[in-house]
Amino acid sequence: MxxxxxxxxxxxxxxxxxxxxxxxxxxLLTGIKLSNLLTVTKSxxxxxxxxxxxxxxxxxxxxxTKHRTIFLLFREKQLLAYLxxxxxxxxxxLFGYQTLRLIDIFEKLCARYQKYMKDHLSFPHELGxxxxxxxxxxxxxxxxxxxxxxxxxxxKVYGDVDAARITFDRYNQAKEDAIRxxxxxxxxxxxxxxxxxxxxx
Length: 201
Prior knowledge:
The chain is of the alpha+beta class. It has one domain (about 5-180). Helix content is about 60%, strand content about 15%. It contains 10 helices and 5 strands; from the N terminus they run H-H-E-H-E-E-H-H-H-H-H-E-E-H-H. Strands 1-3-2 form a 3-stranded antiparallel β-sheet, sandwiched between helices. It has a two-stranded antiparallel sheet with strand order 4-5. Strand 2 and strand 3 form a beta hairpin. This is DUF3793 family protein. InterPro entries: DUF3793.
């Protein structure tokens, strides 16, 4: 992150929902990523749902505790398109998903994620696919138990390092852009429109 953006961030309220969204979900908000995880305090849970109501971002609750909520935010059309790519579809089958209906996927994923968080059972690696990670990196992570990666950024890379670096640079730029825009007074729904304009440019 550039010095300029770090200085801007220093002056922002990091507990404010808009700031958290810029830090955690900028690639999704600006239209270059199909999904993102968002962790917020319990007090912000309803605000998140309200914020994305009637937008192209769908909000799904992945896990809750007394103090925080983990959401999966996603663009349904793009997510379904990715899940229907042949290698992704086949890998989801390996993870035990015979249908790609999101309602069925989320029911199973949430149950597995809860067991991982509460009972320390195995991590549901299909979450990587739902976050748009490349299949070869998800499978490489499993085979290598998280070791022997070629590069590490937003995820551990086992396949195309050059492509991953380009993607990570785009995500970092999206974060810097989102921080600048939100610090200057832009609202989240305006940031979504800004992302649409970038996509169509």
